[in-house]
Amino acid sequence: MNEFLENTKKNIHLRTAHSELVGYWSVEFGGRMNKVFHIWKYDNFAHRTQVRKALAKDKEWQEQYLIPNLALIDIQESEITYLVPWCKLEKPPKEGIYELATFQMKPGGPALWGDSFKRAVHAHINRGYTKLVGVFHAEYGVLNRVHVLWWNESADSRAAGRHQSHEDPRVVAAVRESVNFLESQQNMLLIPMSFSPLK
User: NIPSNAP domain: which residues (predicted)?
Assistant: First the structure.
């Protein structure tokens, strides 16, 4: 893991020369050990295809980063997601920690559960203990999956805010409505890398 991250830090500029890196994190809690999570931005599918073709021809990228790291990667997963219409990507006010909450919703899509999910997210925002970075809906990968990326000043401030929200009747009511459409949830605590645009 350390070797992978050192090589990534050293050569990430070769990758960001082709498309925008939104954020790059290591997973601290809630997921597999020695796992990284990163988000890349594309204008559309044609843009992503163009970037992939350019990377395939970039010998410096392949020789200095891709080939040396292949032996260090155990498993890799990729999803295509988009920001939900009622959310824009926000940048936190300062460095902190991130939480990725992944919700597996019931089949039916946002037409079925979108409004109640939005109310649950906004109920947490209105508490003020956490900052919403983005809400992403899966287009390719497991369908009816929504990722909510939160920023907190620290893991302890996040824990304190969560405990307070559990006693807020407005949050409880919004969450109680939303869970009627929920099948499962996983939360991961993410630590941003030094080269991550989101820190």
Answer: 1-88, 98-197
